[in-house]
Amino acid sequence: AKSNLEDYEVDSALMVEINKYANLDLVLADTKEKIASVEFYPEIDSYSYYDWNDVFHEDKDANLAYRFVFANGSTGDLEAYFGDGFDAFFNDLNGFILDLNDKYDLGLEEIEYGNE
After folding, report:
1. Residue 1: strand pairing partners
2. What is the largest distance, in Å, between two alpha-carbon atoms of the chain?
3. Is the whole model's pTM more than 0.90, yes or no?
4. Are 64 and 40 in contact (CB under 8 A)?
5. Dihedrals φ, ψ of 92, to 5°?
6. Residue 1: what pLDDT?
7. Average pLDDT for residues 57-84, to the nearest whole number?
8. Which of 14, 9, 23, 4 is closest to 109 using CA atoms?
9. Which of 40, 46, 50, 54 fits a 20 to 30 Å CA distance from 98?
10. Taking the CB of residue 11, how many other CB atoms lie within 10 A of it?
């Protein structure tokens, strides 16, 4: 089995490829002005647990994450900008993820959004 560091390196390389070939932008509905790009990046989650033998473990996992990148270089989490009514956006984005999984056998997780 690969170590978490190896998983992170694979995920980082994958994010570079997704960002290279996927073009997702946030635009104003009325003017079609681009206000941000969507960037994929590996988000590191840390967790700890005790196993059946009461041995303490600390571990990390890299997960696919998304954020807006604005013209000035600042970033923002997708969830901070979306409220109710964006289910179709996330359904489409999850469909894109499933297509990537099917085509490239990636095993990426879908985005949890709303009441899911």
Report:
1. none
2. 61
3. no
4. yes
5. -65, -40
6. 38
7. 80
8. 14
9. 46
10. 22
